[in-house]
Amino acid sequence: xxxxxxxxxxxxxxxxxxxxxxxxxxxxxxxxxxxxxxxxxxxxxxxxxxxxxxxxxxxxxxxxxxxxxxxxxxxxxxxxxxxxxxxxxxxxxxxxxxxxxxxxxxxxxxxxxxxxxxxxxxxxxxxxxxxxxxxxxxxxxxxxxxxxxxxxxxxxxxxxxxxxxxxxxxxxxxxxxxxxxxxxxxxxxxxxxxxxxxxxxxxxxxxxxxxxxxxxxxxxxxxxxxxxxxxxxxxxxxxxxxxxxxxxxxxxxxxxxxxxxxxxxxxxxxxxxxxxxxxxxxxxxxxxxxxxxxxxxxxxxxxxxxxxxxxxxxxxxxxxxxxxxxxxxxxxxxxxxxxxxxxxxxxxxxxxxxxxxxxxxxxxxxxxxxxxxxxxxxxxxxxxxxxxxxxxxxxxxxxxxxxxxxx
Length: 407
Ligand code: PLP
Description:
Blueprint: H1 16-30, E1 37-38, H2 50-63, H3 79-90, E2 102-105, H4 108-114, E3 125-129, H5 133-141, E4 148-149, E5 152-153, E6 157-160, E7 178-182, H6 194-207, E8 210-214, H7 236-239, E9 240-245, H8 246-250, E10 258-261, E11 267-269, E12 275-277, H9 278-289, H10 295-302, H11 307-333, E13 337-340, E14 346-350, H12 355-366, E15 368-369, E16 371-372, E17 383-387, H13 392-406
Parallel strand pairs: 1-15, 3-6, 3-7, 7-8, 8-9
Antiparallel strand pairs: 2-10, 4-5, 9-10, 11-12, 13-14, 14-17, 16-17
Bound molecules: pyridoxal-5'-phosphate.
């Protein structure tokens, strides 16, 4: 009799987005004339930059010729893309990452979900609360947790991110092996300083732990004093893996391209205390289970590193950041405490009431959809997340309606 992986039965059904959809549908049925504005989902709304489109078209044309045709490519990604990433995202910022430490993939979701496979099943995992749910669920699937009780999984170390600690987690009281950090953060929109990240890098070095650093929203960092990569922090190359994505940087959510950086000096140990290269382990895993991102998509991604591409990405990101500034200004003026939106597309607002109650109020009184913070973990209760991914017109209209409803 074939049996299932029973860890899957521990997973909590995520009702967040289906509950939102149900409430929106009910509102729409009761108010068929109302035009609902969605500022809830983390998907981008604007088209791919022209430089990406041109490179994409050219690469498709290449595929139509014998000379330009590309079959299976290198699993780790084409050199033209890995070289451009190493130079522009790392070396130009003083971080000595080389092209062969970069693994191109089809998404940071897959990478952040799959990476745990190469570590022992009894590794103690620390996870922020609130959190991007992929980190938690993939560890549940792998059997690293106990049962779900009173809103949390046994065996998991939760790192509370609250107003009191400025949404930056304190070091844990107990030893942990794998630490998930995400900056700029989804859902809180906060970023961390180099000094703050240094405390975790030092912790990881002293405890032989590894930091899994999700920087999917790196492109939104405009404050020059804030780090664009964890490798700007001293010692990070010994203890950190960084995940990046072209999804939010250049509108690739539907095109799919991302990468993980695994420095060669990163080590993890076996039960006998022998050190192993994490880079070698991931390379083995990647080559066994993944066959590379398509040639046209990698060509489109590489185009963001041309002068034209850089200017277009900057314009794209600025557009969403200006939306975020409008949201910040309006919600602050209404008296709400909030964070995020300055180096991130998300604004995390203390609604001074139950998350879902505030969600319902915005929907029913303003026709605006946000995301209730409680859906991201127990520390998210009382908050809502508003996303800047929408048109300027819709953001301005939504804020006007919220002002009218709540003032
Ligand atoms: N990491 C974080 C923190 C995210 O919020 C998201 C998407 O919303 C992802 C990763 C997924 O990125 P990708 O589209 O590259 O899979």
